[in-house]
Every structure is written in C-alpha cells, then in structure tokens.
What we know:
The protein is an alpha+beta fold.
Amino acid sequence: MVDMFDQIASNKRMTFFLFFIFSLLILILGFVIGLIWGSWIVGIVFAVVFSVIYGFISYYSGDKAILSLSKAKEVSKKDDPFLVNTVEGLAIAAGLPQPKVYVIKEDSINAFATGRDPQHATITVTSGAREKLNRQELEGVIAHEMSHIKNRDILVMMLSVMLFGLIVLFSQVMIRSFIFGGGRNRKSSGGGGIIILIAIAAAIIAAILAPLLAQIVKFAISRKREYLADANGALLTRYPLGLASALKKIRDDKDKVVDTASRATASLYIENPLRHKKEINFLDRLYMTHPDINERIKKLEAM
C-alpha cells in the first residue's frame, strides 16, 4: 500500500511534471504561431503571457468553471441532510475540512471531486447516484472522492483539464492564423518559401499531435490515481465491498453517459462518464480515462 504522505509528495512532483509537459507544448505551439505571424519571438511571448493569465485564472476559478460546465448545483444540509451528513462524517474520519456538496441532475450513476486544495474542495454526485446507491455504496463512492482530496489529486486533475483546454485553444489559434494569415505571409516573404513550407508542416503536425499528447498525459495520470483512490477510500470506510458494489451498479447501469460531461472533464469522474462504446484498439486504450472497472472491482473484493 502506498503511504499517504508518499502519494502527496508524488502528486506534487507530478504537478511540476505536468506543468513542464504542457509548458513545452505551449512554447512549441507559440513558436509555430509566431512563424505563421512572421515572428517566432512574438508568437512565444504571446503564448507565455496568455498562458500565465490563463493559468492564474484556472488555479483560482478552475473548479467553478468545471462545476458550471457540469451544471452542478450546491446542496445544503436542509436540502439533503443524509448526503451532506455522509460527506461531513467521512471528512471528519479523513481529517479534512468538510467539502461543499453539489448534485448534477442526471440519471446515470457517477461522482467527482474538484478544487485546488482540501480547504477549497467540492464533491459532486449525480442524482442517479443519490437515488440508486444504498448507504454503504454511497459512502464508498464519497470516500473514493474524499481520497482524491486527501491525496491532493484534485489540483493535478483540475489543472490537467484546464491546461488541456489551453492546448486545444492554441491549436485552434494556430490553424486559424494559418488559414487567414498564411496567404499574407506567403506574398510578403519573397524568397522565404522554405520557411513557409516548414511552418505549414509544423502547423499541421503540432495541430494534430499537441492535443493528442496532452490528452494521453492527462488520461494516463487519471488511470493511476483511480486505483489509489479506490484503495484509500476502502480503508476510510473499512468496507471495500461497499465501493465494489457501487462500481457494479455503475457498470450495469443502463444509462452510462453523463450528458453534461465532456472529454475534457471525463477524467474527473469516478468512472468514465462517456462510456457509450467499448475501447477495442490501441488508440482507444490510450484514450481510456479510467482503469477497467472489472479489475477495480476484483481488487476491492480481494482486500
């Protein structure tokens, strides 16, 4: 079993690694955008300045953006005393401040946690989870999300969602710059045909690979964390079969899609909220947001 403090330290290292990878991709995209604009220096300066502003906003408001996109509504103890009391009790057991509780009006069973630290964390469950799970199953799901908070997974996961969005945004800027600005550069560059060809090739490659690499990094990080959150959540409730039973209900539920989820936010959920098709090939497996749910159930039942 991975020590809790070791995992927290690992998450801090992973946060720096994540920033390094995304920063490298952003600089490459900024360089290519600059070539299209006629000055690679201008492109890199634009990318750095925009990324710093975007990163600052994401750090302090990323969770609010995710909750808004997910159409999650905050609930109080007056609205749902059982749900809020369950979260409060598990927070006390985990030695954490009580997270705010949100609900998504959605028939499928799912949940996620987000926030920049335990003092600014939230736990969100779907109304389907609230209605279809019994007490022990719901406790297992909430304990899983509480473990993400305690392990500091939530910051890494939130930033990966926001940074992935930034990579996609820069890719779109690059493509539009090439479409609307490439012609002017071509006419004004005279003998710069080779540079133009290089810029075209780099733009096409970067536009394809940058979002793909960003997505793979984000999902690989997510898969590893789900196993750890399962194990730590089971230790928190002292009843691994509760979470195992909840995962079985999620697996067998007829409604497997959270309508407000997207590829950007899918890695946050306890199970892939977009699992309307089975991953069957190598590329599909790279894009898997979570480990195989049957493997997770087996591990929990063996605890």
